[in-house]
Amino acid sequence: MSQTEGARLFREAWIAGVREHFPGEPKPGYVTPWEDTPDWERQAAGAVYEQVHQFLIVSDGHASRLTREQKGRFVATCWTAQMFKHFEDPKPGYVADWPDLPDWQKEADSDIFEAIEKSLN
Fold this sequence. Notes:
Blueprint lengths: L2 H19 L17 H20 L9 H19 L16 H17 L2
């Protein structure tokens, strides 16, 4: 899968996770379709996809044995690094540590890891 395809997979998994786990009506930016997603966000999604993909490869597939929380934490940490890359002074919510993330976002991040995992099987 190309990085662009991986980025799309990431975005689609995020949107599906938001729709499933967000309490109430999510902000429009949370569910913006790929075609309308800003370039920086597409690049960030592609980078995180690639990090998860490589993580699964270098673990010889054994990263699948991580807990759901560990999978989500990995995605969240990779995403935070992208926020620091793309923004000089990111909003605190963009770089919040795992314990400070809302539960819906933790679930969506875990869903992303699992979607990438499934795409490799």
